[in-house]
Amino acid sequence: MEQQPQTFVAPQPVQPLQPQATGQPDPTPVTTKPVRIAAVGDIHVRETDKGKWVDFFKAASEQAEILLLCGDLTDHGYTKEAEVLAEEMRACTIPVVCVLGNHDHDKDEHEAIRTCLIRDNVHFLDGDAVVVKNVGFAGVKGFGGGFDKYMLSMFGEVSNKAFVQEAVDEALKLEAGLSRLDTEYPGVKKIAVLHYAPIKATVEGEPEAIHPFLGCSRLAEPLDRQNVLACFHGHAHVGTLEGETPKGVKVYNVAKPILQKAGFAMPFFLFDV
């Protein structure tokens, strides 16, 4: 028997009471229908994938109102792979919010990949922010560097400092995007979209020796400071689905292999905002 998609429903705040014509408070709270998000990372589309993803995008469009693609959209970072994906995405009828991953950067064609895929309902984030259906999204690719007390510090050789600086820069871009949402859309619910992991919990299951290359705790700091509702990432194919930051922000590793292993009927995670 096919397993139904698993859905996490975020707690909905109680809305202010609306006055009746008599001036007395209406005892029935006004509720707003939640916005359903589908999220997946690491789809790794290849040139030979023509026709493979149509059903996926149709299903996401039927079951959700927004689709998040959390990096590694292509398998080897070729523009030709992105061209296949662009054609498959014609079946997607809902807005898409994306970040690129390390695979998308591998052949230094990431800008061409972005150009190939972007259109009116496809939003790429790289320190940017966008509001879709009254939900705010900010995102970056992210970078490695390790977690907690084992996080790399800015010390030693120039090459090591450059590695650490990359993670710092990505965290600063994420902070800027989240701050922009507060400035331009005060009170909007905020979702962070990454490729690399911001916490150790969602890479657990991967060999410990490669944890520093799967993410960095520096990415978690903006999530906690900016009151983010939830964060989605990929990259760690053998990691763990769910964890949280030190201040309790929910983090979901939605790498496609993890969702498939968990028995999702379609490889996307559903989340209600």
TrEMBL record:
Keywords: Hydrolase, Metal-binding
Molecular function GO labels: metal ion binding; UDP-2,3-diacylglucosamine hydrolase activity
Residues in Calcineurin-like phosphoesterase domain copies: 36-238
GO CC terms, sorted: membrane
Stretches for region Disordered: 1-32
Biased composition (Polar residues): 22-31
GO biological process, one term: lipid A biosynthetic process
InterPro entries: Calcineurin-like_PHP, Metallo-depent_PP-like, Metallophosphoesterase_sf, UCP008292
Record flagged with keyword Phosphoprotein: no
Protein name (record): Metallophosphoesterase
Organism: Rufibacter hautae
